[in-house]
Amino acid sequence: MKHVQFAPSPQLSRFETAHRYTIRALAACFSLYVLFETNTLTLPPFQERAIFLSFALALCFLRPVSQSDGRQRLPFRVVLDFAFAALSIFACAYIVVDYEGLINRMGTPTNLDIVMGALGSALVLEATRRLIGWTLPAVATVFVLYAYYGAYLPTYLGGHGGYSVSRILTQSFLTMEGIFGLALTVMFTYVFPFVFFGAVLQSVGALGFAIDLGQAVFGRFRGGPAKVAVVSSGLLGMINGSAVANVVTGGSITIPMMKRIGFQPHVAGAIEAVASTGGQLIPPVMGAAAFIMAELLGV
Predict the structure, then answer these.
(1) pLDDT reading at 9 higher than 60
(2) Which of 52, 109, 222, 234 has its CA 20 to 30 A from that of 168?
């Protein structure tokens, strides 16, 4: 019996086309905005970080849909993603538009402030869940519950006076002390420009150069592919400062190389993971953690 292939419907094709071009337009605007703003600093910090977060959340929700997604699910998935992206832009735009009002009424939020704080916080948690799973959102939720129910805990368990729902929501999303705190500041000021620079170098062949250099130096030695993985991941880490990006890009080449000469799959994966983690700490990028430490220490 012959395998019958079904052509995608015109409606599905339109969804995919809109999805693809929206992501490209947002990514281009995102990059241009960060490169311009980090060099000119024309906006107040709260506003510039709100715009930064709006782009990041929108792109997170509009990530390309893989071919493995079912065709019947795809149109609904795309519509839902567009809705989440629109809500993300709306929530962050509220900060940009009403920036002075939020400052003037800090501590006495309106009902709309509370609603926008809840919406923005929920969108950040959902975006985090989509990217890295349930662990980090669950930890964040536990601390939110601790802030609310702290008055019911004994002192030796960290009990405190407790915080109201309105204070938790507005403090989390409508001030510079929650979501828009130090971590997002470092991402905007340092990490994104270096990651962008690394992506450009990777696109022009820096990854190929790193792997070729490792092969030229260590390829003829025993366990050569493992040494190539260490060298290439270290060189690539100097560019992008991301252990995950190192594993995804370099590991797609070095892990099969190690497996072909007899390394067990879990050993090859471990070697690449450790090498990539070390690579992200090599200057000049050094990963987000190094910049957070520098920001805290003022050095």
Answers:
(1) no
(2) 52
First-last CA distance in the chain:
70
Q: Which has the closest alpha carbon to 232: 258, 262, 193, 197?
A: 258
Q: Quick one: DSSP state of residue 241?
A: -
Confidence of residue 46 (pLDDT cuts 50, 70, 90): very high
Look at residues 177, 174, 261, 178 and name the one whose alpha carbon lies nearest to residue 226: 261
Cβ burial 69-88 (10 Å sphere, 16+ → b, else e): eeeeebeeebeebbebbebb
Block residue for tokens 């893989």: 66
Residues 6+ apart with CB under 8 A from 52: 33, 34, 37, 184, 187, 188, 192
- What pLDDT is recorded for position 72? 45
Q: Token pair of 81, please? A: 């993603």
* Structural contact between residues 60 and 130, judged by C-beta atoms closer than 8 angstroms: yes
The answer on pLDDT for 295 being more than 90 is no
Q: How far is CA 131 from the centre of its chain?
A: 7
In angstroms, what CA-CA distances link 167 with 77, 102, 161, 178, 194?
A: 34, 13, 13, 11, 35
DSSP, collapsed to helix, strand or coil, labels residue 151 as helix
Instruction: Report residue 216 as tokens.
Output: 């030229």
Q: Are 230 and 275 in contact (CB under 8 A)?
A: yes
At 292 the pLDDT is 72
Extract the tokens encoding 119. Answer: 């919406």
CA dihedral 92, 93, 97, 98 (to 10 degrees): -40
* CB distance 104 to 136 below 8 Å: no
Whole-angstrom distance, CA of residue 117 vs CA of residue 144: 13
What does the angle CA 239 – CA 280 – CA 31 come to, to the nearest 5 degrees? 50
For residue 143, give both structure tokens: 């601390």
